[in-house]
Amino acid sequence: MAAPRKPRAAATPSSPHSWDLDSWPEGVWPHDPGRAKWVCRAYRGELIAAGALSRVGYRVIVIGGGYTRWLESRAPAVSAYTSNNPNIGTRRGTEGEAAA
Question: Domain extents for the chain?
Answer without folding.
Answer: 18-92
